[in-house]
Specification:
Helix content is about 55%, strand content about 15%. It has eleven helices and 14 strands.
Length: about 500
């Protein structure tokens, strides 16, 4: 049955049992000591009282004064000191071994022999080789006989016999017994809770480890490892070493899980690459024809300013489509003109046109006063994707804010909306391909992935913070240097 108990019960229980056994042994030892002390006290008390009585009856015995001897023997019997301090019987015998006087004259009559009256008193002579010595012996299991010689000028003229009965001392022993048991009870009431607490403290690390082990396979190893900090305990005992090894195992499991996720992500990207390679080829052919047609129209046509502006907008849009296809191939080499305030104006025009009728409150702020050394097409694509997603997430009568500024050697794009926040479980898969959700307006799960790919190719970073009522995407792109207008852009400082 004990084997089935948890260590959080088993360890405190074992400690409590050890405490109880230890206290029990100490209690029995104290009781045994008190029992032996009682016997020794009874013997010493008999010897002391016998010597006093022997001196008191010596002179009256020489005068053959029976009544004085009897009064002397009765004196200790009348002392009000408790039954346990008194002898049961005090008898004086003369040198011939006959009773001279006794506190029990009805049993030990004058001139009778004690051994005849009570067989336990037989063979009183020769109790000690030294006639002046005090002799003692047990008459039976409960009676102690102490014999003290009565001496006059060094000659023995008789003996004082004191009989003590052990049951008379049990009253005092019972009091000691009650005291010992009361003390034992108090000690147990104090020590047992302390022992139980110490046992629980010892077993708690094992309980924590067992709980974490039970959760392996159902929860992330990274989360379990976070719940088991490295500095939780110090020392080199077995539990500390076990915690350290368990933490290492969780770390290995977390690395394995991350590697598996990377492999799955790589497989998905490979499949996507094969798919987009075919799509890109089919799109680039008609796209090139449309761009050529626009170029021809510009060279030979005679359009008015509105038509010219429209053609410029179409050209930039088609170039953006071409760069999007390149981003899907994850092989973009962005070329073209630097980002200009007019490009931001085009994005505003497109988003406001798409937002027509939704009632979303759009707030814009950009501080671009001239060209920024970044390729315009991919930056515009990032803004369009993030803004369209924000408009969709904000819903009717929602709020969308966009802030664009250059800070130091980087361009910062911030897009916020007041829509529903992104769940924590979705954060880890937000920028994966085909991961659809309220944050992706395209519905295909590629919008944010395209943004992520472009940001990576521009050596920037993108992060998102979301809580109820506000979600913000922030993109930081390092400014680039161009060797010439048509050359490949490279990050500044590289």
């Amino acid at each position: 049955m004990l084997e089935a108990l948890s260590y959080r019960v088993k360890v405190p229980l074992n400690i409590s049992l050890v405490v109880m056994v230890t206290v029990g042994v100490i209690t029995l030892t104290l009781l045994g000591y008190n029992y032996r002390l009682m016997d020794r006290e009874m013997l010493q008390g008999g010897e002391s009282l016998g010597r006093v009585l022997a001196k008191g009856v010596a002179a009256p015995m020489l005068r053959d004064d029976l009544w004085t001897v009897w009064d002397t023997l009765r004196a200790p019997m009348d002392v009000d000191g408790g039954e346990s301090l008194r002898p049961e019987t005090v008898t004086v015998i003369d040198g011939a071994g006959r009773v001279f006087a006794s506190t029990r004259p009805d049993v030990f009559r004058v001139a009778s022999r004690p051994g005849v009256v009570d067989s336990r008193y037989a063979d009183l002579s020769g109790a000690s080789a030294d006639s002046a010595a005090v002799a003692s012996r047990w008459l039976d299991g409960d009676s102690l006989l102490v014999s003290v010689p009565v001496l006059v000028d060094g000659s023995e003229i008789g003996n004082v016999l004191l009989e003590y009965r052990r049951p008379a001392f049990f009253d005092r022993f019972g009091g000691a017994l009650q005291q010992v048991f009361a003390t034992t009870l108090v000690i147990l009431l104090i020590v047992l809770p302390i022992g139980w607490w110490l046992g629980m403290r010892v077993a708690r690390p094992l309980q924590e480890l067992a709980g974490l082990m039970d959760r392996i396979g159902t929860e992330s190893p990274s989360r379990l490892r976070h719940e088991l900090p490295a500095g939780a305990q110090t020392g080199r005992d077995e539990i500390v070493r076990l915690r350290a090894r368990f933490r290492e195992m969780l770390g290995q499991l977390a690395d394995k899980e991350m590697l598996e996720q990377e492999m799955v992500r790589a497989d998905r990207l490979a499949a996507l690459g094969r798919l987009t390679a075919g799509i890109a080829h089919e799109i680039n052919n008609p796209l090139g024809g449309m761009l050529n047609a626009l170029s021809t129209q510009r060279r030979h046509g005679r359009g008015d300013p509105v038509t010219e502006r429209t053609l410029s907008l179409l050209e930039r849009g088609l170039e953006q489509v071409r760069d999007i296809v390149a981003a899907l191939l994850v092989e973009a080499r962005f070329k073209g003109h630097d980002l200009r305030p007019e490009d931001i104006a085009d994005v505003i025009t497109l988003v406001e046109s798409d937002d027509h009728g939704s009632g979303v409150d759009l707030e814009w702020e950009h501080r671009l006063e001239g060209p920024v050394p970044l390729p315009s097409t991919p930056v515009r694509q990032i803004l369009i994707n993030l803004l369209l997603n924000a408009v969709r997430a904000a819903g009717k009568a929602g709020y969308v804010g966009c802030w664009i500024e250059c800070e130091g050697q980087s361009l910062r794009l911030t897009v916020c909306n007041s829509g529903r926040h992104i769940p924590e479980a979705q954060m880890g898969h937000l920028f994966e391909p085909f991961s659809t959700g309220d944050t992706d307006d395209s519905g295909t799960g590629l919008g944010l992935w395209v943004c992520y790919q472009i940001v990576q190719q521009l050596n920037g970073r993108i992060d998102v913070r979301s809580h109820p009522g506000r979600t913000c995407f922030r993109v930081e792109l390092p400014l680039m240097e161009r060797r010439d207008h048509d050359a490949e852009a490279v990050p500044a400082g590289r």
